[in-house]
Batch of 2 targets.
Target 1
Amino acid sequence: MGKCMQGYLDEQFMELEELQDDVNPNFVEEVATLYFKDSARLINSIDQALERGSFDFNRLDNYMHQFKGSSTSIGASKVKTECTMFREYCRMGNAEGCLRTFQQVKKEHATLRKKLEHYFQLARQAGPKETARRSK
Amino acid sequence: MAGEVPSLAESKLTALVVDDNLVNQSMHHKLLDRLGIKNDVVCNGQEAVDVHCSGRNYDLILMDMDMPVMNGIQATKKLREMGIESKIAGVTTRSKEEEKKEFMEAGLNDFQEKPLTISKLVSILHNLDFYVQT
């Protein structure tokens, strides 16, 4: 994992990289693609719920539980931290806190997406052997 | 076994991944593959029950807790009622003791907090007395 990813991804991302092999040479990128597809759906659902002004904190918490789960599995540490904050505000029934934190969730998510896109672009250019060497 | 990662030799074990999250499905499937364990994936507890009703059986079931349609607690209870004796390991992000207790009491043999890693999966296999061929 390059220096540019430090702080954004934790050791769980390295676990993913360890699973990449000749059978699935693009495993990490495939999982990242699944993550961004899934998280985009959840962001959309939360956005719509917040825009309606309906603060069903249970429902919001459920969405964020799923989002946090995916983020944890891929090692997205900053996104995970913001998800945790959002859930705390849900538990407190603090609508303003939810709105504010959700902006942070989206910001960290967008930043991570850009960084990973760049990371995978470099990995494709480098080729499989160089990627394996760099990830060690 | 502790601290060792089994080789990629085929283990002859079979497993079922029960999780609604696509990222987790992909990861858990690959983790099991890496240990040479043939595995299927379903999206919720109801599908886990259905696949057993169709006659399939597995040595190990990795059961998520929070799933739509039928959650992990309900599915575990149902499978045990059906007489399924497979080893069931609960895997969840839930960390409160009372939540873990409720899940264990549904009929689990083991429990691990997500995210699953190779070492956590090896720990499950060790705890449940599975020995992957090396």
Target 2
Amino acid sequence: MFKNFLYSQKVAPYVFVLPFVLVFLIFWVYPLLSSFGMSFQKVTLGQEAQWVGIDNYTKLMSDTIFFKAVRNSGVYMILTLLILIPFPMLFAVLINNKFMWGREFFKSSFFFPALTSVVVAGTIFRLMFGEMEGSLINSLLGVFGVEPVKFLKGQVTGFIALVALASWRWMGVNMLYFLSGLKNIPDDYYEAASIDGASAFQKFTRITMPLLKPTTIYVLTISIYAGLAMFIESMMLWNGNNSPKNIGLTIVGYLYRQGIEKNNLGYAAAVGIVLLLITMVINLTQLAFSGMFKKED
Amino acid sequence: MKKETAIKIVLFAFFTVVCLLILIPFYAVTIASFKPGEDLIRYGLNLKFDLSVMNFDNFVYLFTGDHAYFTWFFNSVLLTLVQVTLTLLVSATVAYGFSAYEFRGKNFLFICVLLIMMVPFEILLLPLYTLTNNMGLMNSYSAIILPGIAGAATIFFFRQYLSGIPKEIIAAGRVDGASEYGIYLRLILPIMKPSFAAMAILNGMNSWNNFLWPFMVLSSEHKYTLPIGLKTLLTPYGNNYDLLIVGSFFSILPILALFLAFQKYFIDGMTAGAVKG
């Protein structure tokens, strides 16, 4: 009898999606709710939790180190958006050009960095941006007569290293996104434009850019998310979560410091909730502005 | 005709320069793996191709030295294989449920799939950490595999793929007397094979390079994965560069080999999310 029930067409779909429901409830809904609950408590691993109301949030609002972390994450996100959207788009259009030699070779080489783990890439960049005269970047600057720079000790120079690392790893991946977007644009459009006497620049701004909009929105959305949630890149560059004067501290880095390193889980949970709010607000605004919520189809 | 050749040369030159810039870090780590760690500490990571200091000592140490590198390496291989296999099977099953049936709560559940993709995983780190602790799963691979076993992006991709498969196959299966599960296992799974390749690559890459969560969960050295092991070579008290650099270099090789062999699937897998559906 039970077997018949389990095998009926009414029940089968629920059996199929059951693993998702379980994982969703146990590893997503529960942690999210408990994170929310924890943010109103004083929680220390191995001790009874204490209800403290909105104390964690009020403390957060006057926590200058937290604001430093928010600013760092925000600046990092904006810089990566400014580099990792226009350049990959331009590269994709150029590499897609019918006059391009060795297209496949270049596509592969651009993609190579994405194959490395953050740990390996971070280690390489940490050494490349080393402060010695002979370290890669300093030795190149030396050719132009620039004195060795202590990259990872300064705010601006530290961010140059951080953004260089991100650009190196993601340039090729974003270019591939734009290339797959370009594939969906029919050649007829360009031919028609040529007949009307449009210049290459006009074709780019009037046809390519508007039709790449869905791809751009996708890349924008994941880049905002990745930018705000960045942590390990900074951890690898500064070999730990403690950079001089917190120049490399990010929101997730602060969450990690408070939660794992200082066993201050309630406060860290509040950091997490604020990050969730920031991410949601920025992404929903961005999606609303780009008209993603308008009825389609 | 002349103008075209000029464009070709300019484009090619431009991309060659950008490509060289991108490949410099690989070149630097490759030559550094042939130099003594001491050289690196004294002169920094650079591009000097100096045969007088280059030798195979690091590689000899990598393969014969007293360290846990290959334990980590095989842990990573094992974890990646198990994680990819389980995630693909579970996610494909869930995706089939979403694609083949109409049922109450379907739309709501699918919005939940999309929701997972919208929220940074990092926010859940601490509650997941305490949950793992309470479940007694600390320092186990289950704690790494379970939370992602029904991967949202993977489910999404499989559902897209399944929507292109004609429903008549399912109807025909029912006429032939196959059970609901028999239809999935015998008729649908075989047709899904091509989509498995792209998702295996995507999940495999993520799993092979996964760092933060495993780093928080795993505590004993013999269970470390490669990224964690490499990270522990960097200490505040001096770095084990002899092993770190050659180990980093060697860790790129297997995935590079896979990439060169299955390039198309890598690109399909990486761009799967951007396909509008």
